[in-house]
Write a structure and sequence with these properties.
By secondary structure, the chain is α+β, with helices and mostly antiparallel strands. The chain has 2 domains: about 260 residues, BirA Bifunctional Protein, domain 2 (2-Layer Sandwich); about 90 residues, Anticodon-binding domain (Rossmann fold, 3-Layer(aba) Sandwich). About 35% of the residues lie in helices and about 25% in strands. It is built from 14 helices and 16 strands. The strands form 3 sheets. An 8-stranded mixed β-sheet has the order 1-5-6-11-10-9-7-8, with helices on both faces. A 5-stranded mixed β-sheet has the order 13-12-14-15-16, sandwiched between helices. A hairpin with a 5-residue loop joins strand 3 and strand 4. About 35% of the residues are buried. The structure holds histidyl-adenosine monophosphate. Histidyl-adenosine monophosphate binds next to strand 6, strand 10, strand 11 and helix 10.
Length: about 425
């Protein structure tokens, strides 16, 4: 068998010890923070109808046109692996009928985008996200941003920055797109061909293009907010004022746009200096998603877990710091002790002690080597002599000291 047979497919990773320990810390602390803000967990399927994503994310977005894993099942139905969590969460919430407004959900799980893998960009990655359903309200947007900042702090992350903008109400959209096109049109010939197509299909996305020629043109055009109604501007101002009151630092970035079409009003991104080119830790915003004949309004964010871990590691926080405490290790000398120790092992585990032993009567040295490998701080040694006396030898692995104790003391010790 070629070694490749043991590798997961490109852009996807196994997550195992010791890395898994930092994942668990992240998930546990997220659950604690979400509980304080009264968000409840949902787990939606990884595979959904393709049209759920094309309708809600927008059928000209990169995610939909280039990055989705789409397949046909045996019944000829077109399905896609979820590239993000919002569409599925809103589908679920909307399935509940009229009580939709006020729903507050969070999710954690794998998402799939068939992008070119590179540092910080995976084909299976993980998001932790929230969605708060309800009509546009700048206070709700600020509350969700406050939650996100709280969460990043709970993980011990330093140096994350929130960049904020508005893309206006749906009613502003025509004016915004027209305004942008008018401002760019005189210099259209300076843009590369792909950007010229974007100009027609999704002119907003030109604003965050990494292409130098595009950036040069964009630098000279007015910020999008100038094409918006007074109402949209006031909305953004209230979000900013509220965040100020909550003492949450954000930077308004007039050129910030997002890669998905469902956004209205507030949009934001969290960036971190320790991440290199893929510097977005998280994205969020207010949205309006149309499913069937219903429009669902909400606000939420999703944080990329792999990127959070990279940012934590850049700041010196590592997975090993969250490793579980090592077990107590039991060493048996002889077959009689082996079977008695099996009962001791079970008794200790039932009393809440993490412990482990060698299940074959191997040489003591071999058993001690294994004990050492587990990182055990305490080793219990029992052979025929101890069995007869009803005692246990307890060895402290840190200093090598040993003492002989009876059962009540052993239990107290552990
Ligand atoms: P997004 O900006 O597309 O937003 O993704 C959110 C985060 O997921 C990114 O900031 C990044 O950390 C992570 N991410 C995205 N693609 C990859 C990748 N290929 N590899 C590693 N990490 C990645 C959304 O998905 C929206 N649903 C967020 C949202 C929720 N808006 C409102 N509610």
């Amino acid at each position: 068998m070629a070694t490749n047979a043991f590798q997961p497919i490109q852009g996807m990773s196994d997550i195992a010890p010791p890395d898994i320990y930092i994942w668990r810390m992240i998930e546990e602390r997220a659950r604690e923070v979400f509980a304080r803000y009264r968000f409840d967990e949902i787990r939606t399927p990884a595979l959904e109808k393709n049209e759920l994503f094309t309708h809600s994310l927008g059928d000209t977005t990169d995610v939909v046109t280039k990055e989705m894993y789409t397949l046909e099942d045996r019944g000829g139905r077109k399905l896609s692996l979820r590239p993000e969590g919002t569409a599925g969460a809103i589908r679920y919430v909307a399935s509940g009928g009229e009580e939709t407004a006020g729903a507050r959900v969070f999710y954690m799980g794998p998402m799939f985008r068939c992008e070119r893998p590179q540092a910080g960009r995976k084909r299976q990655f993980h998001q932790i996200g929230v969605e708060a359903v309800g009509a546009p309200n700048p206070l709700a947007d600020a509350e969700v941003i406050a939650l996100q900042v709280h969460l990043l702090a709970a993980w011990g992350l330093k140096g994350a920055k929130v960049r904020l903008n508005t893309i206006g109400m749906p009613e502003d959209r025509t004016a915004v797109l027209e305004g942008l096109r008018e401002a760019i049109r005189p210099r259209l010939s300076e843009l590369p061909e792909e950007a010229q197509q974007r100009f027609e299909t999704n002119v907003l996305r030109l604003l965050d293009s990494k292409d130098e020629a595009v950036q040069k043109v964009i630098a000279d055009i007015p910020p999008v907010i100038e094409f918006m109604s007074a109402e949209s501007r006031a909305y953004l101002n209230t979000v900013i004022e509220t965040l100020k009151k909550l003492e949450i630092d954000v930077t308004v970035d007039a050129r910030l746009v997002r890669g998905l079409d469902y956004y209205v009003h507030t949009v934001w991104e969290v960036v971190h200096g320790g991440l290199g080119a893929q510097n977005a830790l998280a994205g969020g915003g207010r949205y309006r998603i149309h499913l069937d004949k219903r429009a669902v309004d909400g606000v939420g964010f999703a944080i990329g877990v792999e990127r959070v871990i990279a940012a934590l590691e850049a700041g010196g926080i590592t997975a090993a710091q969250f490793a579980p405490i090592p077990p107590v290790f039991i060493v048996s000398l002889g077959d009689a002790a082996l079977s008695e120790n099996l009962m001791l092992l079970q008794m200790l585990r039932q009393r809440g002690v993490a412990c482990e032993m060698e299940l074959s009567a191997r040489k003591v040295q071999a058993q001690m080597r294994r004990a050492d490998k587990t990182g055990a701080q305490t080793v219990i040694i029992r052979g025929d002599t101890e069995l007869e006396k009803g005692t246990f030898v307890v060895k402290n692995m840190a200093d090598g000291s040993q003492r002989e104790v009876e059962l009540p003391e052993l239990i107290k010790l552990l």
